[in-house]
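Hello,

Our lab assistant flagged a job as stuck in the queue for most of the afternoon. It eventually completed. Since we weren't sure the result was trustworthy after the delay, we are filing this so someone can double-check. Below is the sequence as submitted and the structure that was eventually returned. Let us know if re-running is recommended.
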Amino acid sequence: RFGDFAAVDNVSLDIRRGEFFSLLGPSGCGKTTLLRMIGGFELPTEGEILTYGRVSTLLTLGAGFETELTGRDNIDLAGAFLGIEQSQMDALTPAIIEFADIGKFIDAPVKTYSSGMRARLGFSIATSITPDILLLDEVLGTGDATFRSRSRARVKELVGKARAIVLVTHDLTFVGEFCNR
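-- returned structure --
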């Protein structure tokens, strides 16, 4: 609740491993607020949210980056935040950098990145850690056509690995192609 306004009210969900669940509805109906609660960024005013496993979010691509640090440093920071061992992040970093495809900017401060570069790096990090639960909010239309195609292929990979994915989108074509609920 925000004052008298109930952003999310009387919702009950049970999303299981292997499901690709889509939240659809008009702008302002509470979809993003629900994702933020599932991701632990907002607490429900009443009721409870229970999640089991590692949650990775793409609620706002590039949000949460430490802008004074480089992209490479933010990869490490994201890993530490998610409780991933540094050795595992070191092993994942080359693939994250390759997928983000931002070239030499990986070693530049994130404050110098365009919004598209931040989105690419955020998407690459969030989808490289193979989360148990991946939360996506209107992210698959980000970037140029080549990156959008690679992003869709990456999400398809995650679906194939039987991870739970919760997507907010207005792209009914994507929903029809990928979502099973």
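-- support follow-up --
The delay was a queue issue, not a problem with the job. The result is valid. The first helix runs from residue 31 to 38. Strands lie at 20-23, 55-58, 133-137, 164-168.
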